[in-house]
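Record type: ASSEMBLY
Status: queued
Input:
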Amino acid sequence: MKQKMKSSIVLIVLLLIGVNVNAQWKKNKANEDSKIWRYDLECEGIGKQGSKLVKVWSYSKNPKHAISRAMKNAVHGIIFKGYAGGGTGCTPSKALVGSATKVEEHASFFDAFFLDGGEYLKYVSAATDGNIGPGDRLKVSRREYKIGVVVNVLHGQLRKRLEEEGILRGLSSGF
Amino acid sequence: MKNMYKSFFTICLLFISISIFSQAKKPTIMVVPSDVWCNQNGYMLNFNDQGSVVSIPDYKRAFQENAEVNQVISQINGMMSERGFPLKNMESVIKSIESNAAEDNMRSSKGSGSGVSESPIDALKKVAKADIIMQLTWTVNRTGPKKSINFNLQGLDAYTDKQIATATGTGDPSFSAEIPVLLSEAVIAHMDNFTSTLQVHFDDMFENGREIIVRIQKWNDWDGDLETEYDGEELGIIIEDWLADNTVKGRFSTTDMTEDMALFEQVRIPLYNAKGRAIDARRYTKALSSFLKKAPYSIPNKLVMKGLGRATIILGGK
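Status: finished
Output:
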């Protein structure tokens, strides 16, 4: 009886370790996929005041990773990339932080900001309950997917946060 | 111990004064419907000026009769306030000018019964004004049942007449959306681009100084002119040298120079003087005025200002 219990406990512990390792491996894999910030950003329409409705196309070998990284990519895109346009009615949007020197100067802030579960999550929400449109799941090569996710980025609040941090100048700063 | 308190107090005061003086003079901004919009929507006043018909925009009637213009201006004002830059509201400015004029007409001195002094120039200056004008135009495009909005917002420097910010484009055509909804969308779509171009202008201003216009004129009865020589140098050249020495990186352009007048454009002035106080065109040109009043020139002169960015010195008297 005692022997049986022991082996069950060992089995459960091994199982838990296995699940944890698997989750960590998946996370690392997803991070690896998005490490080089490979994504495309386009305007999806006119959002509410202070927000931008964008479709972010993320690339990954695993479609699930692409979806999970969409929010991070969208916030990154609004801060560093901007977009040239999209459908009719969309206007181009400049990157909030255009200068490369600013990125280097505040590297530690951005590293912490874009950590998994980091502050970036405060400024983005899924616009379509996380559903992917039928034409937005593309297999671009034998081993790679391109997934389009529509998200809403709180552009105004994000800009204010960067102003607080001294990364951006406010319109009235200096006056 | 008492001495320490005193020093601490002095340091605090110093910091407070530095923080007060380190703020540059903030330009005022006002949204104004463009002449094109007023003309297309029938808000013009026509009058006969010695035989030729002159049309000017009737802003008061536009604000009283057109709800859409109020909606767009209100939305723009709100978005600019959110960015920490509240705007002057033109409708309120017009009302203030009218009520001030009525009060001034009624006011009389308790002792002598005298009215408030006002020169013809003062009367002429009683108009709605701002340092930066946001000129607003929109047109509704209709193709069958489809409607779209063509939106154009221009930021114009009231003194240099330069366009310093812009946002323009055509919105998404819609079968069902009403005009106010399309207008609201247009404002949301374009304001970020407008403010980012305005930010570029402010950044440039902080780096290279405020851009102003300086005019030099002379009174008819003054016996000198800009070609009068002092120590072998013409007065016009002396003024140019002063500007070269006192502008940021020596930047200015001499647009016009005759014996009677000179016009200097793109004059880049520092935002603060030697004492760390914020300066505008008037405070800057006051230094030139004082320079000309002193020997060897000894030219009495009058300094006239127009907002933050334009100043005129009239030589030969006050």
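Annotation: The first strand of chain B starts at residue 29 and ends at 33.
Annotation: Chain B touches chain A through 31 residues (CB under 8 Å).
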